[in-house]
Amino acid sequence: MQYVIAAPDNESYLVRQAQSDASAFAPIYEFYFPRVYNYVRYRVHDPQIADDLTAQIFERTLANMQRYHANQSPFGAWLFSIARNITNDHFRAQKRRRWFSIDNLFNHPATDPPPEHALADNDQKQQLLWAVSRLSERERDIIGLKFAAQMNNRQIAVILHLSEHNVATILYRSIRHLRLILKEE
Amino acid sequence: MNELEQALEFNTKLDALQNKNVTLDETGDYTDLLKLANTLSKTDFSAGTSIRQSLFERLNAHNRQPFQKPPIYRQYPLAASLIASLLVISILFTLPPVRTFAQEIIKRLQTITLTNAPSLFEPYLTATPTTDPNHPPVESLNLTLDEAITKAGFTPLLPTYLPDGYNLTHRDARVGQITTEFEPAGVDTSKCCIIFSIMQLWSPEKEKHSTYKYPVGNVPIADVLVRNVHGLWVQNAEIGMTHDENGKFHIMPANLLTWEEDNFLFWMTSFDVRTNIPLSQEEMMKVANTLQMPTH
Fold this sequence. Notes:
The structure holds two protein chains of two kinds. Chain A is mainly α. Helices cover about 70% and strands about 0% of the residues of chain A. In chain A, helix 3 (about 45-65) crosses helix 4 and helix 7 crosses helix 9. Helix content of chain B is about 30%, strand content about 25%. A seven-stranded antiparallel beta sheet of chain B has the order 3-4-5-12-11-8-7. In chain B, strands 1-2-6 form a three-stranded mixed beta sheet, with no helix packed on it. A two-stranded antiparallel sheet of chain B has the order 9-10. In chain B, strand 7 and strand 8 form a beta hairpin. The chains are: A mainly alpha, B alpha+beta. At the A-B interface, strand 1, helix 1, helix 2, helix 3 and helix 6 of A face helix 1, helix 2, helix 3, strand 5 and strand 9 of B. Strand 1 (about 5) of chain A pairs antiparallel with strand 9 (about 240-245) of chain B, so a sheet runs across the interface.
């Protein structure tokens, strides 16, 4: 028979402390940095833009720590809603820009094959990013939330305002689409 | 099978793979897709960025500045205290039960405050029993000491004394947190529950704030001296819950000993569903006093 024993959860404990003592933000940052960065990388092809957006996400998170309420959502879901908003704002700003820039080149589906001179260790990553960059924005978003943010389908459904079945179907299609792109390459 | 059914089957297999409940079946359906999903899940791009440290330093610089403007009550302290006093007096005279509530026992350590607020589980007690008592299992790992150290980022203190018959049965960890569980030998662990657990939580070194409130139900909270530091002892704390075969929830009263030491919060609990007599304060203090760094 199952049981639940309640104890101070480390994350909520640290989040509560970080709300009154910002130095407690360090372990939260260490835990979430790779997840947030990987999420942004799956959505934005250019590493420099990914750096910039990741910085914005953590700066906004820290600045808004006082506004976070644990009874409304888990901290991770709140953090990734900020990450999504900032990334979506970036794309909206890109769409408003009528002139061509180097940023646009990287933020639209790539047409060139991945660079062949990449080092062996980076080769698979580059190939994967190149293939992901050819997916639609929604497909990249859901892949980022599932595999970088490591959310389950129920959490993704809440963030995207979709049903769990919709999330499962879109995810399934996205992975099939990605495999097709990699095979074609 | 239509697309939705395929998608659901794929997602079920993906979740099992990600939760490490199964290994990838090289010959099964969706093998290619699952391999690709596994690659997406395991690939880490963050090692390739140089901003991790510089951003951390920038955020730290931000930390040295105040979070926000001083609240209005600090700008007009006299007016604020007058209004607050009037409000409190009016409430105390108009709502007698509030006076009882205002006497709520509250005990503090440096970073955590135990309160007599209703248990976290109270809402479940009046819930309609579910028709499916087989709730999804709580994700839990059983780690070796080395795995737990790697995962948590610190080495936990371990007891050299355990109550008669108890053995280590389970260890779980996440960043900054290690939980070790002990159960009596010879007990059928598939039936709930006789557990003694020690959780060690890392807390930051800087200035402490008693902001983290934790409800233990309407039971006495006593100050104790444990390992030469101030600790708290709670008998029959309402911090555990199980459900019967009909899906109805029940609180499992637990004895709780908690204290803070060298930037760690220790949270030691014992419960025994069969006898409702958890380990005594004397026994738990004895275990606490033998905690020490592992020798290996």
